[in-house]
């Protein structure tokens, strides 16, 4: 069983402790088999069951639209992601994408847009996706080229998006497109595009090392009403950044969940694997490895829950969230690698828990801002303070 001492940290309140414990109990019963070969079917089923059990309410903002709180509580989504990731990576993915996919609607949607989508997303009845990245606009996302041209009371979208999680199974996509008011990060607007809108198609499904629904999207003269635009024209980039700001700390929490599971698996193997007249854990080299794993996890957890707490106080967390994401994802990669090493040959056998974790952690160091991007953010904030 993973260390739960962190639940007593002052960053958290009793309602958070209760949430984490209840979800852990639910996950033990409901997620034991969430690793089937058909990821589309698995994800649909996970979204439905996470919705029916009420967990997805935490991923959307606004109590009148199915949300657990008026404003998404960062500590709650972190605890949920950490707990789900510890049990089943795909369950964490399903939860996170309902939040990220509908985040722009929660944060900046009109009353009609919120009423139309948030209750369904919170109930697990509609699957959502966040379509920002393009093949030539990943880290440099302000370079995006997908365009939306105003045409009377409609917009006509042309272009492509790639690496879109839930692509192929989502019911609703929030698509960021250039409306041309200005170059670069200006002149981008966000649109709600329901699956099945004429002119919108899945151009390609993408297989990745830790399988989950992922696709390249194509828009060809895709007409959407002007009422599908989220917020004012030209506000899309700001909306995208605000959405990522909410969820960046939760990526750190997911990494933490993977790392905690890896430490549990490592401890279990080290204390039972017989060798040289004892067990693996008898050796000081093993003990040093375990000590390093546990310390890496605690340092990542401290940064993660500091950022989450600070955000919930309504304070800026640009630097803190970047630190948490960088340290937690990079640290989890090291912890998981150490767990694979402790498991020896068994550690690289397909679908062993540590083998799965080894694949699952990798993309967290890339998406929602690669580690190098987080480093630049942290340095920029530091230098800003110095020059101020
Ligand atoms: C599994 C997965 C799921 C995803 N889901 C979504 C989604 O749902 N929606 C969405 O919009 N996007 C999604 N993405 C896209 C993701 O956000 C991009 O992959 C990410 O922003 C990096 O862009 P890129 O892949 O084009 O890499 P590039 O931008 O080409 O960067 C490549 C590498 O360059 C390095 N780098 C970047 N900037 C700098 C710098 N300034 N200095 C030095 N080095 C640097 C980093 O190491 C980076 O990994 C997903 C990606 C993956 C892998």
Task: Tell me what the structure shows.
This protein is an alpha+beta fold and about 400 residues long. Helices cover about 50% and strands about 15% of the residues. The protein has ten helices and ten strands. It has helices at about 15-30, 40-50, 75-85, 90-110, 110-125, 235-270, 285-310, 320-345, 355-360, 370-385, and strands at about 130, 145-150, 155-165, 170-180, 190-195, 200-205, 215-225, 230, 275, 280. It has a four-stranded mixed beta sheet with strand order 1-4-5-8. It has a four-stranded antiparallel beta sheet with strand order 2-3-7-6, with no helix packed on it. A two-stranded antiparallel ribbon has the order 9-10. A hairpin with an 8-residue loop joins β6 (about 200-205) and β7 (about 215-225). Bound molecules: flavin-adenine dinucleotide. Flavin-adenine dinucleotide (FAD) binds near residues 163 and 165. The site of flavin-adenine dinucleotide has 19 residues, from β1, β3 and α10.
Order of helices and strands: HHHHHEEEEEEEEHEEHHHH
The average pLDDT is: 96
β content, as a range? 15-25%
DSSP summary: helix tally? 10
Structural class per helix/strand content? Answer: alpha+beta
Bound heterogens, unique: flavin-adenine dinucleotide
Work out the helicity level: 40-55%
| Largest sheet entry | 4 strands, mixed
Rg from Cα: 21 Å
**Uncertain regions spanning at least 5 consecutive residues:** none
List the helices and strands and how they pair.
Layout: H1 14-30, H2 39-52, H3 74-87, H4 89-108, H5 111-123, E1 128-131, E2 147-151, E3 154-165, E4 172-178, E5 188-194, E6 200-205, E7 214-225, E8 229-230, H6 236-272, E9 274-275, E10 278-279, H7 284-312, H8 318-343, H9 353-360, H10 371-387
Parallel strand pairs: 1-4
Antiparallel strand pairs: 2-3, 3-7, 4-5, 5-8, 6-7, 9-10
Helix pairs in contact: 1-3, 2-4, 3-4, 3-6, 4-5, 4-6, 6-7, 6-8, 6-9, 7-8, 8-9, 8-10
The chain binds flavin-adenine dinucleotide.
